[in-house]
Amino acid sequence: MEFRQLEYFCTISHLKNFTRTAETLHVSQPSVTKAIKALEAELGLVLIDRSQKKVNLTPEGQAFLLHAQKIMSAASAAKKDMARYRGDSRGKIQFGLPPMVEAYLFPDLFTKFQSSFPDISLDVQEYSDSDEVRNRLALGDLDFGIVLGEVRTPAENEMLLMQDSMSVCLPPSHPLASQEKIGFGDIAAEKFIMQQPHTYQYKEVCRRCNEVGFVPNITLCTSQLKTIKQLVANGMGISILPNFVTGTENIFVRRPLLPNLSVQITLNWSIGKQLTDVDEQFSGFIKDYAEKHL
């Protein structure tokens, strides 16, 4: 059994797609397929159900995933602990964020954290979406990550930071701007400007549209929120975004959705992770910051 095989397996368990796994790990898809098959052959078990388009783990795969994640987390902890012998006396946190959080919540958080804990450095990585942050946590590449997702009771490796609502963003001259609230049926004929397909915003908006009975006409997907906002202001389409990224904008109008579309923001760490003193200081600060400022 090779460490590389465990890395591939943990990644595909989160992304549920061989192609995305290969792209994320910067390897070829045949390499991923070969590694997973070799792992299954060694264990004498089928770990992945390939009968459908979306990859899912078998019951045996789910059980093995717990062991693989513990190994990946232990390897990451070992690397971090060995840094002491290289003379790295400062505490260091590997921290991952999706673009929306990195741009709108992180700057003030980082400033206040460095003021309170000058001896702890943050190595911050921006990832394309929350799924990739979760995957990097499972692989042991990150100590903590902030992710966006559906509103639910946080798991044992999650800390609730805030709950927010999404609103329809419209150009000021749009006919729907006169309504106090907007239903999904009201926007069936609109052009949508969205974030990338793997983001929570994209998937949740598409799901709600499908429930009402239509497929949204998505004319552009981009990870650049400033671009989305400016295109909405220019009348090129509408968007649906969390209030925390649009609250100070005056170049377009916002209207609440009916029914409400919520988003939950959590601080996550890997399952089974043993928190160090530095980790405890960081998570404690994040909790206090969220209670006061979010």
UniProtKB/TrEMBL annotation:
PROSITE patterns: HTH_LYSR. InterPro entries: HTH-type_LysR_regulators, LysR_HTH_N, LysR_subst-bd, WH-like_DNA-bd_sf, WH_DNA-bd_sf. GO terms for molecular function: DNA binding; DNA-binding transcription factor activity. The keyword Transcription regulation applies. One of its GO terms (cellular component) is cytosol. Keywords: DNA-binding, Transcription, Transcription regulation. Residues 1-58 form the HTH lysR-type domain. This is DNA-binding transcriptional regulator, LysR family. It comes from Selenomonas ruminantium.
